[in-house]
Design brief:
This protein is mainly alpha-helical and 74 residues long. The chain is built from two helices and no strands.
Length: 74
């Protein structure tokens, strides 16, 4: 029984170390994603300023409820 407990304890230690490693990796990836998003927003902002908003980018987060209402009509 003591040997089984020791084995389980070692497995738990390994799992804890692996979780910590993955947590750090996820944190680094999140930081990288945030930096890339900021860079992309800056580039888009500069691009739209150069065009003087003559052709603004559409907001893809808006729902297209007006299009779906019109598409059902014959």
């Amino acid at each position: 029984m003591e040997r089984l407990n020791s084995k389980l304890y070692l497995q738990n230690c390994y799992i804890i170390q692996e979780n910590e490693r993955l947590r750090k990796k996820a944190q680094l990836l999140n930081q990288e994603n945030q930096a890339l998003l900021t860079e992309l927003k800056q580039k888009l902002s500069k691009s739209s300023n150069k065009k003087n908003n003559s052709n603004p980018l559409p907001d893809l987060n808006l729902s297209s409820t007006s299009n779906t209402a019109n598409s059902s009509k014959p």
